[in-house]
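Here we describe the complex-level prediction in full. Unlike the single-chain runs in Section 2.1, the two entities below were treated as one system.
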Amino acid sequence: MKIGLVLIKTPSFSEEFLISKINILQQEGHEVILFAHGNNSFNMCEVVEMPKVSNFFFLQIIKMTFAYLTITIQCPIIVINFLRFEKLDGRSFRQRWENLYLGSKILSKNLDWLHFCFTTAALRKENIAKSIGAKMGVSLRGYDITIFPLKNQNCYSSLWQRVDKVHSISHSLLKKAKKHGLNSSTMQEVIFPAINTQRFKNIKLKDSFNSKKTIEILTVARLHWIKGLEYTIEAAGKLKSVNFNYTVVGSGVEYERLMLVINELNLKNKVKLVGYVPHEDIVPFYEKADLYIQYSLEEGFCNAVLEAQSMGILTVVSDASGLNENVVDGKTGWVVPKRKPALLARKIKQIISMKNDKLNLIRLNAIERVKNKFDLSIQKKHFNSFFNENLFQDK
Amino acid sequence: MIVAIYSGMIPAPNFIENLIKLTGDEKINIYLFGSGSSVNYENSNIKIFCTPHGRLNIICFVFFQLFRLFVTHPKKLYKLVKNYKVFSKSGSIIISLSKILPVLNHTPDIFHIQWAKSLPFWFFLKEIYGVKIALSLRGSHINYSAFANDSLARNYNILFPKVDRMHAVSKKISQKAEKFGANTNKTDIIYSSLDLSLLKTYKKNNHKTHRPFRFLSVGRFHWVKGYQYSISAFANLKKINNDIHYLIITKNHISEEILYQIDDLSLENNVEIVHPDSQEEIYKIMNESDCFILPSVQEGISNVVLESMAVGLPVVSSDCGGMKEIINNGVNGFYFPARNSIALEKLLLRVMNLGVKEREKIILEAKKYINKNFHPNLIRSQFHDFYKKTMEI
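The structure predicted for the assembly as a whole is:
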């Protein structure tokens, strides 16, 4: 089977999850083509660069004319079909031709399956699969399902009508997609994200907390409101009686906002925003940490929480969407209602006062659960079934 | 005396426009520099020197200004060329010159900078041309930017002690500026003025509350405004009393964060966002509301709180910045610890349950306080003194 995967940008080799997905499909004998913006040295499979939109009007006209000529010579019937389907969707003349340009690189490939790895990547490309006679799949991602439709009402209505199979990274995200119009009868499968548990491996269990020890707290997240870092720092401000250091790994637009709350709460010596750290250098931060906090307002699932649990770090998360499925409250970590810094602070104090036997049990449970449920090897089985050919027989 | 009030934009934000209109008279001529569009002030003592838009226009403008400076003030041009670093150190040379040249062609006695971040750019006026520099301490430039930006903090530390005179919009912000070397002896605390005659026409006469109870906030969507806390408080309050409504007046688009929060807490039917066209329309809505909420995490002194107090709308404000200087808790309004949505929720409930007499008493106290401390005549004389003292240094 010839499978086309549509991404936003070409992946780097550090994106283990996607690399593993491509590996699995190739091992199963499928041919994989990536469609993405930008080009790098990625060479695991054919990479097709998606058409760019130029700021210069005349250059754009030339590029569009060239694309139309090429695609019409290569596959005239597909072009006619595509424009017809677009018209049936009620799109204006201009939109139809713009969409033809945007989808031209995919239309010219003779695919059996077209899979959009991000929901927003499928926008304005809903009729491509139907035009080339391929099946269409889409992956649901956090921002695409929880925020984007709020700003763009009914943006996915055409997509939900066309898509053959939906992949979600959590049950809660699937539920939200249904709230935004995904039909319950559309084939759907939840495949959780996965990590390389061999890389994020626990070395030794930590000693018990005591009053002399400085507790190392860690969050790995970009500095964005959705990560709830302001609330986490507010909670840190309520831990006056605790000897701790809180490290936030990640960069982003909210630096000024977070520095203000750090200054206001006199936490400059305790809270450090260390900036961006490449994923391949992240393990030493986990090794140092006693407690991992992910107090996000919204999460599709969150790989960092899996990595922390896999490393045997005590993990506290908010009850935002996928985090509820990522951590089992009281068994592999703790779940605290979001936007309630006082509750988060109280929970941290409780954990610190717990006996080490109890904490070790939680650590071991987390390591075990991640290994059994969220390791890359587990993913293989699920992705094999997702792209199976039964779908073609069923239809 | 010629005073340039510089905000970079023409027209400037409302509170700076108020200052411009208030201070311009026979004794003090006001010059305005910056980009934007011309404003008709109906006051011949206010003159505008606007930098045009568009690359070609700006280039022509710079050549004209250069020629004029060469003909009328060749010495100034010589000094500028000699100190070429002042226009070559930041960004585009043409853009820098388009800002500097009109000021040199119409050099004021005092250059009054409204936003501290532009102080490093303009400080050469004092060093090379001997122009007095006055600085207003207001907004994010003092409240938080320098705490997150080491190079800005360094610049403040070097320049603040050298500024001729400072105007602080609140005592609190003056204290913050002290951390960067501002001299309190050279700082005057002058509050913003209000257009009390206009506000009078929107004064609330009926102090009975509406059903549903109408909460109001006014301000752009920005994290510093703290809407996430007021919406959390409102959502919790709704669990106790469903008969409430929250209106937010803003000039910009709703932020993703607040859009998400409203959806997440299922408040679509209770929280409304509006974009009024005029200041009068805002006052009209204030007149028809029952309680004003200021949930900000940082403010100098919020003008909308002062306006609400003048209109007769009870105010619940966070204790951020200089707000505690204005609000006497429980007497002319209420305040809660900033970022504490539980405390805010309790206060909102308290305001909802106020009896008519209690409401009237608070409203009366608020109006009295505003009339006494924010009267335009008072603020005008304070600014005249301020400029006089600046010249005496």
